[in-house]
Design brief:
Helices cover 32% and strands 19% of the residues. The protein has 273 residues and is α/β, with parallel strands linked by helices.
């Protein structure tokens, strides 16, 4: 399998998840009507369960293009990362394709939830800083400059770490570093940090770039400094319970084509090789 880069911070976050009793709080069940989705999951030829960071990175666009080219219907539903691992053996109908961070997918594979030989690196989802549309964009090219920018803000919105989502936990761990002491970073009371900023709360927000770009009310300043390792690396695999395994493999191959990068890059995702 191709090399997968996993940050030390991401490994620590995943490890904390695996010893945390309540991972179900990361999202709704795959059949919940309150989660973002595309296509009809129940009747699709290829059923996909994915975290939101992959969904917002261009997955629905490529699924629609695949359907147009092949005639195979693709149904996508989103769920929390921990919830995917916790319920993957119970979902009805079962998924054909699964997206997860590497360590969680590896855990799933060890438990027999992944079809052997199908796991492949997918994408890196960096965290970014957002400001209100039209506001000045600070220099965040170094950790020191990034910290100074955050300290200049009245309020830096972020996701609630009590939700135990990987995004919220990663951001919380960044803000706990000594460089960011004194930053006022209230949690969003509804949705993610980027959504709160888009509603007019605060004057900055930290969020995955793919979840900043959809909102016209806010603008991306840039990714967080590389030294912070503030990103989530995801992989894709065919579910061991897939009822359309060959179609699922064909879809994954389609997603991993070099041509697909023209969809991912504008959405803020970097393809992993």
């Amino acid at each position: 399998m191709r090399r997968i880069l996993v940050s030390a911070l991401s490994l620590a976050l995943v490890a904390s998840w695996l010893i945390t009793a309540d991972v179900r709080g990361q999202g709704q069940s795959p059949n919940s009507s309150t989660t973002p989705s595309a296509g009809d999951y129940a009747t699709a030829d290829i059923r996909i369960i994915t975290p939101g960071v992959v969904f917002t990175s261009g997955l629905p666009d490529l699924a629609a293009a695949f359907t147009k080219e092949t005639g195979k219907k693709v149904g996508i539903t989103t769920s929390g990362m921990g919830t995917i691992v916790d319920t993957i053996g119970k979902n009805t109908p079962p998924p054909d394709v699964i997206f997860l961070p590497f360590q969680l997918m590896n855990t799933l594979a060890i438990d027999g939830g992944v079809m052997a030989g199908t796991m492949a690196p997918f994408g890196r989802h960096p965290m970014g800083l957002a400001v209100k549309a039209g506001a000045p964009k600070p220099d965040i090219s170094t950790v020191e400059k990034f910290a100074a920018a955050l300290k200049s803000a009245k309020a830096v919105m972020r996701s609630n770490p009590a939700s135990r989502t990987m995004v919220a936990t990663l951001i919380d761990d960044v803000l706990k570093r000594p460089e960011f002491a004194g930053v006022n970073a209230p949690v969003s009371t509804k949705g993610e940090g980027g959504q709160a900023l888009a509603r007019g709360e605060g004057d900055m927000a930290i969020q995955t770039i793919s979840q900043i770009l959809p909102y016209k009310e806010i603008e991306l300043v840039g990714p967080l400094p590389k030294e912070l390792e503030a990103w989530i690396d995801t992989v894709v695999a065919v579910s061991a319970r897939s009822t359309h395994a060959e179609d699922a493999k064909a879809f994954i191959k389609y997603l991993l084509r070099p041509e697909s990068n023209k969809v991912y890059k504008p959405k803020g995702m970097l393809r992993l090789e």
